[in-house]
Amino acid sequence: MLRYAMRRIAYAIPTLILIAIGVFFMVHLLPGDPVEALVGSEATQEDIEAAKERLGLNESLAVQFGSWVSGMFTGDMGTSYATGRDVSIMIGGALPITVTLAVCALIVCLIIGIPGGIFSAMNKGTLLDKFILGGSLVGISVPSFVMGVLLMLIFAVWLKWFPSSGYVDVFDDPIGGLRALTLPAVSLGLLYAATMARIGRAATLEVVSMDYVDMARASGIPELRVRFRYILKNALIPIITVTGVTFGGLLGGAVVTERVFNLSGIGTLIINSITRRDYPVIQAAVLLCAVIYIVINLLVDILYAAIDPKVHYGDNG
Amino acid sequence: MAGALALGAVGCSSDNNGDTGNGGAASGGTLNVRIAGAMISTDPFAEIGTNPWMLLRQMYEGLTSLDNNFSAIPMLAESWDVSDDGLEYTFELRDDAVFHDGSTMDSADVVYSLNYYRENATRASQLANISDVTASDDTTVVISLKSPQGNLPELLGQPIVIAIVPEGAADNDGLVNDPIGTGPFKIKDFANENRAVLEKFDEYAPVDVPASEFGGHKEALVDEVVIEAVQEAQTAVAGIETGLYDVALNVPVQDVDRIDGFDGVSVQSAPGTNIHAMYVATASPVVDDPEVRKAIYTAIDRQRLLDTTVKGYGVIANSYAPDVVSWFDEAAGNYWPYEYSVENAIKLREASSYNGEPIEIIAGAPTEQGQNATLIGQMLEEAGFTIDIQKLDHATYQSRLNAGDFQLASTGSPIRTPADLLYNEWTCNGTPKRFGYCNEEYDALYAEAVSTGDADERKAKFAQLERMLKDDAVVSPWYYIDTQWAVSDKLEGVTVAKSNFFSAWNISKKS
User: Fold this and answer.
1) How confident is the model over B255-289, as pLDDT tens digits?
2) Complex ipTM tops 0.90
3) Quick check: B39 and B227 in contact, CB under 8 A?
4) In angstroms, rounded to a whole number, what is the distance separating the alpha carbons of residues B388 and B380?
5) Inter-chain touch B122–A268, beta carbons under 8 Å
6) B351/A contact by beta carbon, under 8 A
7) CA distance A38 to A15
């Protein structure tokens, strides 16, 4: 297992290098100049040239790339063109917001999606099954920003149960923080809950049809034990895999929810930086998201092996 | 040529917060403000955008500020004098201005700040005419100029202030992480560019000058100010309705009536100085012919633009200079020779060199710019032009503007003041690539206007420049937008600024 993990980490390095090269050159190929976005339309040519000199944008692309990469190896993500702040500080301020939102949304997703899928499968063909399937279809079809605006209208504006927007640090004010995150987490989580319910239903149906389940029942094992130990435990294996991928998707897909609920997370940071062509921030944030995604997938694979004894990552794993 | 402006000898405006410029009683509490875009940074030398300056102007001040007619008034300087040849300004500083770090402002700080601006600021070229800045003593600063500049006090006090900071404070981007100004509020928290928390600066000493929307007498009557950038309009409206914000700027025009109906909130407005207009790159193909440009202007129904895009909340603009500025000339400012007429536009087009080539209109990110571009396109097509509209993101739009890589551009901008900055844009050395307009007669007249110390003579010369730009069909102003803010009934002392620059001072909040 350790050897497998080390091998996966080693494979990740060239992946990250390719991503670094790709994102660097893609942002530099974008039309529009970071300096001119910075200095505005009333700037003189002298102002523009002075800004380019100050930001090192007079250097060749190769020199700029080399400076950036060498900085990344020493933990220096560079300085934002727009804010003048260390990129690491900017990302350090934004990432926890997105992670907290993603975790809350994942909890919503799991609480609604897993039981929904399992109950649907256990009651296949009944009204409950049809209701859950219909609900999941609606959840998948409604865009998260529409859901967000609807939830805001009903629960914040009309009922005044939750704040309409904004972020409160859950570590400073747990109650206030959770209240502020409820609507964004639900609007983001419902979309993935719908997908999770369908996957959970499919996984459960597959397990229920297995011979060992019939054997367990025939052996006189209590039904509750059959459901939990034989059905649920095995149905969870693909669900865990999907959960890991879902968390990665939540991190990236939170940008629309962040915009609707005015959360200054990593998605908002990336969008604002793209608008301003703030290259150091875009490059560092995208690379960081790639690292997080790779780590999550590795952890999911390891967990998968831990749960399913049939899975063994040998020399060829 | 000599003049002195003593502290207190300034005319009042009817928009002041009281005749003496005093604020009300301190109320304490927290003032929650919504603005439309990110504040980005706390460095006053780097930031030039309207949204960052919503935050920065609460913390930083300059030697001068502006009254409601955009004329200079004392701020950190209590008076100034100019030499007979107009090449030297002597500023006498206040001795009671304190920085947020507790140090007292003196001439060394002013010398440092102005020199830092000249060497490092994003808009350093604005002070290009300064040859030297020296201190005569602790409270006297002398600014030497390369050529006379009658509007220097107005330039130093423009809405985007040339800030005075402690000596050395800006070195190594120091103000990014540790902003230190002299304003009535100081930074408490700025964790990200979308949310700032300010706290009252107890050592702030107000000046005895009537308050204006830019400066004058300021008092921090609340304990804290929270400024939040909310880009999504409907999120902002929900926040207004649920009482998240005490003041919300940039109320969406389609929601004005609805917001005005919310409990405890009213929409307050003032005639604005933000303009929607069209830039014309006079060196670009097709539009380099003045007759083509005249045909284009005649085809534009500005009232329709105003009524459609901003629901009529504004007034037609005949000049880039709004009529509230002290240097606005009635005759030149109101002169507009291209009255809307489709019939006349067609005749002008047929008499011009236009041969059916597509004319491109570019528009940037703001929704109104895009809407105006679409409407203009329709109007010009009615007059027989072939139009291609390109809606671009902010950075691409800016790049193409600055490179002059466009023919027509739908734009919106805040006021450019003083007049030097506005009319400089059409000089040969101003933004030559953008407008492509280079007229020696214009440049000579501009140099005369800028150098004179006589305000009336300056006004007359800028008026001539104004007419020249219009007769040459170089400018195309459309309308000024009303400034509209949603204001909580709990607040007292709010005066809607024509410039849309919000001031947290002199505002109290009922509990």
Assistant:
1) 999 999 999 999 999 999 999 999 999 999 999 99
2) no
3) yes
4) 11
5) no
6) no
7) 32
